[in-house]
């Protein structure tokens, strides 16, 4: 069974969600801090959804450092819980989602802000030496250190500015495709 | 860290190190009985650790990749494998996430059964962890007692689910089967006895001057660093941060129960080893409350349609597991299988603190510091 085969034409989740419609029903508290970020970066930040306790912003990779700095300095989000790479072969992109949380502000303890960006994807990856690169957020959110190492080995996204882009979970001499890419097939399936 | 000399032919990930005569490099693990399935590359100057580099991955099984090829139901048994002693809690965020994706309600009784099972599992895990912490520090009684006492709850879970450790008990929509007829009485009796037993650990272990001498003021993690490094669970709470997902973002029926968060301020190995023990006592309270409030009869499972599909959506749910917050991020693309499933687990998040805590410590303190992180190698590797 292949997960890459799409029976229906590929849909872009960004185009499915009309921002105006989302914001009509958005919870007030979540909307307030998302608006604070979105107003600062009007063209570069796209609000994908505002749900109860969960929000998601899509940011262009050129602006991810600025947005992360702004979030770190102006909102109570102080650590990254998880960094997830998602492969989109049809769109020739690899998405990276940072889930940010807050320990310091009790009002924000329920909130998880997903900060997502996308890197270009190459058909024949050469991790570290191809165009699949993103700036590292380690200077803003120190806790991404091991998570970004994992994304590098699992999806081949090189994080520029990360001091330690070594393998973490995979063997050091792993020479196959980055395993979480969709074209890496599970053996026997 | 030694200077890295890159060469063009080297595959990415490999590195060459310069050798310093004064610094000695030790490999602790991956076959060390204490390190678990992990290697820590320790650099020592005399007796003092100057650098520590955790090298996990020896039990990486590609759970996230496997999940992309299996549907939402068949994912259940293998997703609990990363930490079989805490299998309910590691499945919990996944099950909650799938419920959000397919949009089903969970019966009230099932929510209570889940909370009880999750708390029992938390105790089973912590007892196992505590037993190893005991033997790490040469306290063999503290190995025998928790290893024996956890059988009480393993028996209970066996009565509920039929399996001693890998229960595969939670399913989207509720739990797999109902608890046995006299479960409330048996459970209450076991919990009360269990609580009496673990209170004795205080005398033999936590008030033991030898333990205190070995763990107090070793591996101190300040509150600011605990937040900055994004640690979670007992590590975070031992450094004085009041954060427990059960209280801060209650799931299922935790908002109807009185859950107390155990916070210690010291941030040293002693505090980190004490918080899980206090959590077990709190778990006993939670189980008793849940048994009292649980509806005595009713449905325990909302059946899903065969091969359920999520929408064009994504979900991130988190719970408090035995090792801290366990998060599950599911990207769904209208398929029976998740498009991408990411487990963000406490062990992996706490690992980043290890080099910080070990720098400047004596090598002999390494086991006390390392295992106090409440680290489970298999879970970190997934």
Can you describe what's shown?
- By secondary structure, chain A is of the alpha/beta class.
- Helices cover 24% and strands 25% of the residues of chain A.
- Chain A has five helices and seven strands, in the order αααββαββββαβ.
- Chain A has helices spanning 13-16, 19-24, 28-40, 64-74, 145-155, and strands at 45-51, 54-59, 79-88, 93-101, 112-120, 133-135, 158-160.
- In chain A, the strands form two sheets. In chain A, strands 1-2-5-4-3 form a five-stranded mixed sheet. In chain A, strands 6-7 form a two-stranded parallel ribbon.
- By secondary structure, chain B is an alpha+beta fold.
- In chain B, the strands form three sheets. Chain B has a three-stranded antiparallel sheet.
- The longest helix of chain B has 29 residues, at 108-136.
- Chain B is globular, with a radius of gyration of 21 Å.
- The two termini of chain B are 27 Å apart.
- Classes of the chains: A alpha/beta (189), B alpha+beta (382).
- At the A-B interface, β3 and α5 of A face α1, β6, β7, β8 and α12 of B.
Concise structural overview:
The complex is a heterodimer of chains A (189) and B (382). In chain A, 24% of the residues lie in helices and 25% in strands.
Task: Name the features.
heterodimer, A: 189 residues, Beta Polymerase, domain 2, 5-stranded mixed β-sheet, two-stranded parallel ribbon, B: 382 residues, alpha+beta, Cytochrome-c3 Hydrogenase, chain B, 3-stranded antiparallel β-sheet, 15 helices, 45% helix
């Amino acid at each position: 069974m292949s997960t890459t085969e799409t029976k229906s034409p590929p849909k872009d989740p960004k185009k499915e969600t009309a921002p105006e419609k989302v914001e009509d029903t958005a919870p007030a508290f979540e909307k307030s801090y998302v608006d604070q970020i979105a107003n600062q970066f009007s063209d570069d930040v796209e609000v994908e959804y505002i749900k109860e306790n969960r929000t998601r912003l899509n940011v262009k990779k050129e602006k991810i450092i600025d947005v992360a700095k702004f979030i770190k300095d102006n909102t109570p989000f102080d650590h990254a819980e998880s960094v997830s790479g998602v492969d989109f072969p049809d769109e020739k992109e690899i998405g990276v989602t940072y889930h940010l949380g807050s320990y310091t502000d009790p009002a924000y303890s329920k909130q998880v802000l997903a900060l997502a960006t996308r890197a270009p994807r190459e058909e024949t990856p050469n991790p570290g030496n191809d165009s699949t690169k993103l700036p590292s957020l380690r200077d803003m959110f120190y806790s991404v250190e091991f998570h970004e190492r994992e994304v590098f080995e699992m999806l081949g996204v090189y994080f520029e500015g990360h001091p330690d882009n070594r393998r973490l979970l995979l063997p050091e001499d792993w020479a196959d495709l980055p395993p979480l890419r969709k074209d890496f097939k599970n053996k026997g399936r | 860290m030694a200077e890295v000399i890159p060469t063009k032919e080297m595959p990415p990930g490999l590195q060459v190190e310069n050798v310093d005569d004064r610094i000695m490099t030790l490999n602790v693990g991956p076959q060390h009985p204490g390190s678990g399935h992990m290697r820590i590359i320790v650099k020592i100057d005399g007796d003092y650790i100057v650098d520590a580099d955790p090298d996990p991955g020896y039990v990486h099984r590609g759970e996230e990749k496997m999940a992309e090829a299996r549907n939402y139901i068949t994912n259940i048994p293998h997703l609990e494998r990363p930490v079989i002693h805490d299998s309910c809690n590691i499945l919990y965020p996944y099950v909650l996430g799938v419920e959000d994706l397919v949009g089903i309600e969970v019966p009230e009784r099932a929510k209570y059964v889940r909370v009880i099972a999750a708390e029992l599992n938390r105790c089973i895990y912590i007892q196992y962890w505590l037993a190893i912490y005991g033997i790490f520090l040469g306290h063999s009684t503290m190995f025998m007692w928790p290893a024996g006492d956890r059988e009480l709850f393993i028996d209970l879970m066996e009565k509920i689910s039929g399996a001693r450790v890998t229960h595969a008990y939670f399913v989207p929509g509720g739990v797999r089967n109902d608890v046995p007829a006299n479960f409330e009485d048996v459970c209450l009796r076991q919990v009360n006895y269990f609580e009496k037993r673990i209170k004795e650990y205080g005398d033999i272990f936590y008030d033991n001057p030898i333990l205190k001498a070995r763990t107090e003021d070793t591996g101190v993690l300040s509150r600011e660093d605990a937040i900055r490094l994004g640690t979670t669970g007992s590590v975070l709470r031992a450094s004085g941060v009041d954060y427990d997902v059960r209280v801060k973002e209650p799931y299922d029926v935790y908002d109807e129960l009185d859950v107390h968060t155990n916070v210690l301020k010291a941030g040293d190995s002693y505090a980190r080893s004490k918080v899980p023990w206090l959590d077990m006592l709190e778990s006993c309270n939670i189980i008793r409350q849940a048994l009292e409030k649980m509806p005595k009869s009713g449905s325990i499972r909302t059946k899903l349609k065969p091969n359920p599909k999520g929408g064009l959506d994504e979900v991130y749910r988190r719970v408090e597991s035995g090792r801290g917050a366990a998060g599950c991020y599911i990207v769904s693309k209208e398929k029976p299988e998740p498009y991408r499933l990411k487990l963000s687990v406490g062990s992996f998040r706490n690992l980043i603190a290890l080099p910080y805590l070990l720098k400047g410590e004596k090598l002999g303190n390494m086991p006390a510091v390392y295992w106090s992180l409440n680290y489970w190698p298999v879970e970190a590797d997934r």
